[in-house]
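Q: A reviewer asked whether we had any structural model of the full assembly, not just the individual parts. We don't, so I'm hoping you can provide one. Inputs are below.
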Amino acid sequence: MAARNPFKPTAGATPPLLTGRSAPLAEFEDSINDGPGAPLRLTLFTGARGVGKTVMLTEVSELVAERGWVAIADTASPGLVGRLVGAANAEFEGLEQSRRPRGRLSAVTLPQVLGTGGGGVSRSAADQANSGAAQAVNLRFAFGRLLDSLEARGAGLLVTIDEVHARGRRDLRELAPTFQHLAREGAV
Ligand SMILES: Nc1ncnc2c1ncn2[C@@H]1O[C@H](COP(=O)(O)OP(=O)(O)OP(=O)(O)O)[C@@H](O)[C@H]1O
Ligand SMILES: [Mg+2]
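A: Here is a predicted structure for the entire assembly that you could use as a starting point for your response.
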């Protein structure tokens, strides 16, 4: 049988051997260690098609997960903010539930005011029609309380967003005020 080819053409798949990435990964790790305000806490991986941007996002997610951080991964596309709200709420609930004594978990549900993804509340048409501004408020709230909960455990949050190059600008622009706000609070 032929030897296994270490280079798979599968887009985004973590290669069996990650070559030439130890320096940027070490830099990223330094910024994680240094705390809020460190330069690579807001990082953009750029490069030609297939150069390994998606793989780097997976690598940094695994790096932070190893130290107990939460990593939320998404791709720039319409509805990004709503999906991030849902993911942050789900992570928050998971953290809170792991802290509660067993046997009391089934009664937990979130108020519908959170919009998407709360405590098994299915999305109504009104939720889906949420304005961008309302979603931004939801995101700020969802990230804020998740960060508070993580901080209490000495952990943090990594958000990775793939495919921001083409039509992702608009989706990113919706995120900018939230990150600005978090940065002002010294959380980024
Ligand atoms: N450092 C690396 N060493 C070896 N193989 C790698 C490395 N980085 C990426 N690859 C491999 O190259 C291929 C393309 O990687 P990836 O999908 O991450 O690129 P990309 O920059 O996200 O591409 P695109 O611009 O199309 O989204 C994958 O098969 C991946 O396993
Ligand atoms: Mg990619």
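A: Points you may want to mention in the reply: Confidence is low (pLDDT under 50) at residues 103-108, 111-126. The chain has one domain: 43-102+110-184.
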